[in-house]
Write a structure and sequence with these properties.
With 234 residues, the chain is α+β, with helices and mostly antiparallel strands. Helices cover 42% and strands 23% of the residues.
Length: 234
Amino acid sequence: MTTPTTYLPVLQSGRWFAHLPPDLAEPLIAMAQLRHLQAGEVLFRRGDAPCGLYAVVRGAVSISGTGGRADEARAALLIRLEPPHWFGEISVFDNSARTHDAQATEATTLVHIPHERLQHWLQAHPQHWHALALLLTDKLRSAFVAMEELALLPAPQRLARRLVMMAEGYGQWTAEGQSRRVLSISQEQLSLMLAISRQTTNQILKDLESRHLLRVQRGEVEILDLAALRATCH
């Protein structure tokens, strides 16, 4: 029978969980349950009540939002989370509604720590709020970097930087120098993630492909030369 413990190697490959003290990591796993989602299934939507903390251990989850008038609503894909990413910690802290939508982009398995159970445990063990805060501040740093890039960098550099970040797991892995060669991301998703047009995204990818830095396939981007791609970010 598959249980949260089955996915411990996946969780321990992530920097945050790997550095937790045993008196926090073990209770988290004891409180956890598995949640399985089909491709396209919504986990929660903006405005939903807090439902707990999650870790992706198989598949992927997109975090997105929409804005504007109903007849002119625009979508924004903020990030695509893959193993071993944790998410949902904002509502753990402020006990407020979800800020964005979370949806499985493929068949996905999550380790889920229910909200009420986690809150009750943290009330009895307040010394562990600091570890949860580190998870939150890590996301905050990434958000500030993304805001700076949006304001200062041209689209080609922003796209290259995002591909490098995705290939390196957004810095979440414990293994030094670990990277992913094939990224499961479509051109449409990249354009939504970077707030640039599909046409511009296509042009930038074609240029990088002509320089043999990557190969674009249906729903995927294969990184051929990560070091050279990283060099184009500056």
